[in-house]
Amino acid sequence: MSEQPYFDTVNTVEYYVGSAKQWAFFHQKAMGFNLKAYAGPETGVRDKVSYLMEQGNINLIFTSFLNHNSPIADHVKLHGDGVRDISLKVPNIEETNEYVEKRGVVKPGKIETVKGDFGKVKRSVIPTYGETVHSLVDVSEYDDKVPPGFEPTDIKEKSVGLKRIDHIVGNVEDRKMDTWVNYYIKGLGFEQLITFDDKDISTEYSSLRSKVVQYNDRSIVFPINEPALGLKKSQIQEYLDYYNSPGVQHIALETDDIVKTVSELKQRGVEFLYTPAKYYDTLADHVGSIDEDIEDLKKNYILVDRDEYGYLLQIFTKPMGDRPTFFYEIIQRKGARSFGKGTFKALFESIEREQAKRGNL
């Protein structure tokens, strides 16, 4: 990308949930996040509560409502617990908004300024698929890591080794994927990275199509999925049925030692999709030499794939809430820049086993 970057990185991901306190507690105790800051009635916020969680460079906010006529309550009633806002840090919000508006696809919201003890934060909002939004956040005139309106806490937890967001995946309706890919490319200046069709991602029962867009040498990476016609219901369609709209399917969190991270997460109670033992019988034939002990991968159900740059290891949690919608991916990259094309069939079969248990395949 030759022009100056107008977007830096994913700043925070905010979830709207039924109980922010419970989601924060789970992420602290089960996933090794620190409770970085809190906002609620005790800090002067009257209509909601928010918990800001941190691990490595990952910042998550869990927000819940305090009265039944809140738009947050409406969101949770319709969608269940899920991601509302993928906030993007920008170097200069006036320049970014002008750049986006000139591209003629989306009009950014009005720039709002929030003042705090450490300066001011500027913010505007643009829509994306479903009811998901991107807050554009400029912190160039703010000198603290805790946002205005939040009060810092001192509740630490032992990290499980999660260090950054690798990518965030959105699910959209059939035949809408290209519309949203073009939205990011034409509207925001992203570039298309890779495409998977229903021949790449399928089993005998179901399939999907996916395209990946990225910004500024993969500083921000958004795969976008749509369901494809199969003999039975796609996992993407199951998501859309339960979320009642397009939305964020999963967030991939990167670690430098996936065996250690996943082992710790399992001990803390995080549930992962099962991979049959037979997958590992021919793993070496498919991916060649790897540093990890295959028995360790087998014990933890970790998948492996290789591309021209190296290999990656990945695993997927079961849904994090009551509905079969949002989940996490844990990923370690050993040079690979792809997304696990060679593991898609094994992954899909694992997901289909869970769908069958729910009667939704």
List keywords for this structure.
about 350 residues, alpha+beta, nine-stranded mixed beta sheet, globular, endoplasmic reticulum, 4OHPhenylPyrv_dOase_C, metal ion binding, cytoplasm, golgi apparatus
Describe the structure.
The chain is built from nine helices and 17 strands. It has 361 residues and is of the alpha+beta class. A hairpin with an 8-residue loop joins strand 2 (34-39) and strand 3. The N and C termini lie far apart (42 Å).
In brief, what are we looking at here?
This protein has helices spanning 20-29, 71-79, 93-103, 177-188, 235-243, 258-267, 283-287, 294-300, 344-358, and strands at 9-16, 34-39, 48-55, 58-65, 82-89, 112-116, 119-127, 133-138, 151-155, 162-171, 191-196, 207-215, 220-228, 247-255, 303-307, 310-316, 327-334. The chain has 361 residues and is α+β, with helices and mostly antiparallel strands. It is an enzyme of class 1 (oxidoreductase).
